[in-house]
């Protein structure tokens, strides 16, 4: 490729397409092969060469998987848990992010610094007291015990603060104050409308993280009232090695996210990239 | 996201832009009202944060100085630093430490390098680029539980697809479960599969933020492709790369779900502990062995290890920056 063509006008040759296609195949193939495994019987999967195309045993396998683990309950629980966490995180982190970006108060930089520093704390450091706390409050095994501790994230505050700093001009806020607007009014009528895209991005990322969260839900929930991830665990930990059924169950519990992803993929990709630059 | 490592106020910061001594410039009531009402805005966040994050962290530190059992949680027997001493002389702790380190390195280093390469590829003018971007993000949407269960089948020694292909290529089959390095590689590959695409998009965003005119200028100056990569792309991407390295380090140190599910939900990390991580060990100490004090000591050790690793990363990158600058 000629040097002057670099970058902005970086043209893709055949080699580029081949490599990119290869990356896409590696990304998608395990999911495709899950469909293949989920739609055959165990005996068929043991054949050589192994099957490469979907078959007809899918619904039978799912039926058995649903008997082995409460996948439907897991899905509903996951929707409730992720929805509540997303709503809480977006609301509380936007409030705090606004204060850190545009208001002046004592201890602001120290508090923000502490907040950012805590992103290094491993989940493991809080789970034992949390577990006992939830037991004491009678919340062990309840969805509330999953929602409460994850209701805010330091990342969310930082993310919103960065976006608000850049997306809302100070002049706009100044002139609103000149006109006698209260801080509440500034927040609701200027800041929130201006940072709605960032709230959407934070919402998507939070939902996905909450949906995929494994460690804390595994500890606090039991197999009778699981999130979908905890249900996967009990499905995969069954004593009988019935791969096809495990695969069918895994696929069943993953399909909702994949559908959302296929529909909103463009927005999610845009959100992640936007967040990387603006943040 | 890319400027996570700096805490200085943002460019548009009101307080810095307005000198303190010109009260006429700022509306009078605002500053005092603003400062008091600011606490109302951060209060909900910090209440939840204090109750469900800060308090448990501190209590974990306190518990680590005691012998505590789940059944008799409130009867704590003071043992001072005995749990930490126990860890330092404990074969299981050092095994888990080494495994966490090696799995972390074999998952993070290739992952970030490949992600950089993919970002470069995606930075071309591509037909169907949205499709490619969504495709490489599909693994990120797949949960770690689902991904591990799926890969467990692909790596299955008997009927797994991967061993079938090895066999087809007249290579010896590999025991991806019981041999140490293959098992660690298999677990690392799950992490890589899930996160490479995500990191590639982060890098791509960083690439697109690099001033395009620099490339034109460089090529006028006769810089080759490699020169442009070294002197424009890499410095431009540096904050993004450091951010990605720090995030990967923090994530790797806590690795838990993949090795747990890779052994069917058992916390021992394989028959000989060949892939037991610190996260798994902490879980095993607490919930299988009922030694909450020891588990708490492990949890705090993990934090110290992360802190040290992040500091090392930052020091190295600062030094490189100074050299480069």
Please give a handful of descriptors for the protein shown.
heterodimer; A: about 280 residues; mainly alpha; MetI-like fold; 14 helices; disordered N terminus; B: about 325 residues; two-stranded antiparallel sheet
**What is the CA-atom radius of gyration of chain B, in angstroms?**
25 Å
The average pLDDT value of chain A, as a whole number, equals 89
Largest sheet of chain A: none
End-to-end gap of chain A:
34 Å
Low-pLDDT segments of chain B: 1-32
| Structural class by sheet pairing and helices of chain B | mainly alpha
Tertiary shape of chain B: globular
- Under CATH, the topology of the largest domain in chain A can be stated as MetI-like fold
Query: Structural class from helices and strands of chain A?
Result: mainly alpha
SS field, number of helical segments of chain A: 14
Give me a quick take on this structure.
Chain A has helices spanning 14-38, 42-45, 58-68, 71-102, 108-117, 127-136, 143-147, 154-167, 170-178, 183-194, 196-212, 215-220, 228-236, 243-278. With 279 residues, chain A is an all-alpha fold.
